[in-house]
Design a protein that fits this description.
Helix 1 crosses helix 2. The protein is of the alpha+beta class. It has a 3-stranded antiparallel beta sheet with strand order 1-2-5. A two-stranded antiparallel ribbon has the order 3-4. It is elongated, with a radius of gyration of 19 Å. The two termini are 23 Å apart.
Length: 92
């Protein structure tokens, strides 16, 4: 499912105009983005949590040329799946 499909599903489920559903989805994602930019944790019960992780620099290799390159430190968003979702997806 992509963002536009999510908007369409919300509009259909809640009987909203597409424009209003798009505003709702954009607001939710925008607030999640702002929280992560401010290095706050975002938790959605039953789904999982997002946080920003710090990664140290390292020596990497350019796959095209084989040249060794230095990759600097970076911060990236990280998602940890919640127990409920993990159990619902892993039905064996």
């Amino acid at each position: 499912m992509n963002k536009s499909e999510l908007i369409e599903a919300l509009a259909k489920e809640e009987d909203l105009p597409l424009k209003k559903a798009e505003e709702v989805v954009n607001t939710v994602f925008g607030e999640m983005e702002n929280a992560l930019i401010n290095e706050e944790r975002v938790e959605i019960r039953g789904l999982g949590s997002f946080k920003v992780k710090d990664y140290d620099g390292y020596k990497g290799r350019n796959p095209k040329t084989g040249e060794i390159i230095s990759v600097g430190r970076k911060k990236l968003p990280f998602f940890k799946v919640g127990k409920e979702l993990k159990e619902r997806v892993d039905i064996t």
